[in-house]
Design brief:
Helices cover 50% and strands 16% of the residues. The protein contains 14 helices and eight strands. It is α/β, with parallel strands linked by helices and 319 residues long. The radius of gyration is 21 Å and the shape is globular. The mean pLDDT is 91.
Length: 319
């Protein structure tokens, strides 16, 4: 069953009527409803285009969190071959919120790392809704070190509300693990590209997204804090999340202007969840383009360019 977001309610009514007409006709061969149903289909397509052409920042947050939006596991299946998952941080244990391992991208050996939220109740609990504990970030550090040792490009897929804030995670050094992962991103001497495919929340996202090239899907978001968290702090009212989302400048369009990201990957009309195959194709092309831009750069040149990128972060678009 199609899941509709709050602002898509008018669309759900139109598509529901078309589906209902076709259901009635399937049970009564004498009914001819195709002309009316097709008219409703066209009306729905026009409304969908209109809705998604004018999304505000809070609506983009809703789309980025859509339960049917493709997650890291889906991209691993669609874009990579010979994926060999590697588990554990060699210290505490395995964290299922972060998937990672060796793979081939268009027949090129790579290391791929990404947050996984899960797609149903069971898998969401297993993956802790994409919120990694310290061992997840320490696993990421281990994988980045492996990539550096063997000269393999790193590809990261970002989709998390943030690092897990639980007591056990804090006791095991959550802040230190995030800092170490961010440090590893900055110091590995191989090409490193990141794509924000859904939510890019706080340090939990930065720890895997501090790359040479960063792309965002059109309706994804990337921010220092969630709109709800920001509203709770600034206004003591989580219901002011719409105002917070606008103030945070967390959309791909805002962040491209600020120079935080390098490119926006267009989504199919209605979001990535409406046409997964087309989304995979576009993300694959973006990854290939970013890797090609980095090909031929020696280790020192990569590190120098990456250093300069982050030292100058936020200066663009502030004038």
């Amino acid at each position: 069953m199609q899941h509709y977001l709050e602002f898509e309610k008018p669309l759900s009514e139109i598509e529901g009527k078309a589906a209902e007409l076709r259901s009635l006709a399937s049970r009564n061969p004498n009914m001819d409803v195709e002309e009316e149903a097709s008219a409703l289909d066209e009306k729905a397509r026009n409304l969908l285009r209109s809705l998604y052409a004018n999304l505000d920042a809070w609506q983009k947050c809703q789309v980025a969190r859509h339960p049917e939006r493709p997650h890291t596991a889906d991209y691993l299946d669609a874009l990579f071959t010979d994926f060999q998952p590697l588990a554990g941080d060699r210290a505490h244990g395995e964290d299922h919120a972060i998937l990672g391992g060796l793979a081939r991208f268009r027949d090129r050996p790579v290391v791929v790392i990404g947050h996984e939220k899960g797609h149903d109740t069971k898998s969401r609990l297993k993956h802790n809704f994409g919120m990694a504990r310290p061992e997840g970030y320490r696993k990421a550090v281990r994988l980045m070190g492996l990539a550096d040792r063997f000269g393999l490009p790193v590809i990261s897929l970002i989709d998390t509300a943030g690092a897990y804030p639980g007591k056990g995670a804090e006791e095991r050094g959550q802040a230190e693990a995030i800092a170490r992962s961010t440090e590893a991103c900055l110091t590995i001497g191989v090409p490193f590209v990141a794509v924000i495919i859904g939510e890019g929340g706080s340090g939990g996202a930065v720890a895997l997204a501090t790359a040479d090239r960063v792309a965002m899907l059109e309706h994804s978001v990337y921010s220092v804090i969630s709109p709800e968290g920001c509203a709770s702090i600034l206004w003591k009212d989580a219901e002011k999340m719409r105002e917070a989302a606008i103030a945070l400048r967390l959309t791909a369009q805002d962040l491209l202007k600020l120079g935080v990201i390098d490119r926006i990957v267009p989504e199919p009309v209605g979001g990535a969840q409406r046409d997964r195959d087309e989304t995979f194709l576009r993300v694959g092309e973006a990854i290939a383009t970013m890797l090609a831009e980095l090909d031929g750069l020696e280790r020192d040149a990569l590190l120098a360019e990456r250093r300069q990128r982050y030292l100058g972060m936020g200066m663009k678009g502030l004038g």
